[in-house]
Specification:
The structure is a single chain. The protein has 219 residues and is mostly helical. It is built from ten helices and no strands. The protein is elongated and about 60 Å long. It starts with a helix and ends with a helix. 31% of the residues are buried.
Length: 219
Amino acid sequence: MNPGQAWDEGTKKRLIMAAGEAFAQHGFRAATVREICRRAKASVSAVNYHFRDKEGLYAAVFEYSHRWAVEKYPHDLGLEVGATPEDRLRAFIRSFLLRSLGDGFPAWHSRLIALETAAPSGVLSKVAETAIRPMDEYLEGIVRDLLQQENPSQEVEDHAVRLCRMNIIGQCLFQLHARQFRPFPGVKKLDPPQIAAIAEQIFRFTVGGIRAIATGGPS
């Protein structure tokens, strides 16, 4: 291995971790490259070398964070092939909340997601193709199956699918926002059983809504 290659990869990882902390603390616009490099013990030129600029570094932080989260908690949580749409939806919601609220991730992980969704910088849309679209397509398949299952004689409308997807993600993101910006009294950290209970409530609420939409005529 080229000695410089190991140094480069180590510097790149330090920059990503330091940037995650800085962006989560100050936000994308207020965080500075100089401060990030100070935390990473790297030169400013290292950012240009590895990421081209601050925006590229921000995108890399999200790609790294999302990839790590999905590897630990995949969308289906390891369900067997042939699982029902209901089981797939339950697993999807639980995995989403575990990635957002669970432990085992960098301390800045959930805070960074909450800040970006509350005040989008525009950078996240650039990594959507690789980081977000696969998740969205998986959820779309679940919603279509549920709608079709509830009303086999009616063609599933794209508009209904889109609204259902938005409502599911919206419920999950609210759990993240509520705890990041308005902490619940006496609740510092959620454990997996607590997260599972929240996921089950969202699941039951969602299934009831999808059934009402499927049987209630055109949306």
